[in-house]
Structure prediction request, 262 residues.
Amino acid sequence: MQLDGSPVGADDLAALALYNYGHFTSMLVEDMKVRGLSLHMRRLMDDSHALYGTKVDEHRVRDLVRKALVGGPESAAVRVTVFAPDLDMGRPDRAIQPRVLVTTRPAGADNPTPMRVKSVRFHRDLPEVKHVGLFGQISHRRTAQQQGFDDAVFVDAEDAFTEGATWNIGFLRGREVVWPDANCLVGVTMRLLQSSLNQYDMAMKTEQLRLSDLDGVDSAFATNAAIGVRPIGLIDDHKLPVDNHLLDLVREAYLSTPAEPL
Prediction:
């Protein structure tokens, strides 16, 4: 764990722990390359402007990530968090210069097992920003797991799908990929698929899909940088096929995206 490239102490993290104000991106680094790296950098710049009125330096962030990975595993999960240690909770409007915290850990093993998810009515604060306020998502994930599910998927007041706890959800209907027409965080993996699926003769659209519409879809899947593309086999008590060969094409489309060097 490094803050602006230097070892970090407890005092440096006090504002992040106490105020929970900041933003981040998580990426999978393999052999010093990242799928969608430019999209991760764009997210950091845009979210920093939204929360602090300034933009982080993309080249500096890349340097900090490379430094944090020295001597580490070839495949690593990296989280870049942008926050302000000197934030004044009483006057967050004052100009402050955010800093960059980089944490690394070995990448988790690939888990192709279909997910079992529980639907929950929930709406994140400022959903278009990948901010550090994760209490709601983690709480609902915990409750879902206590009930025998793997995770939670969120729906709005009309039971229309929005997003997963820390992932996006997509549906297959024939050779068409349907993304929820919802106010949510559009993940990097989702964006990469939106760019690559047309090469596999698959159409895409956004549509408001409700829990009551599940009989009209063929399959469902989750996407994020850590899991790539993972099938969803159960939503509440509704079983979904996971042997759809088109799911394999969706995974292939993601894996075909060239990784960018750090």
Notes: The chain has a mean pLDDT of 93.
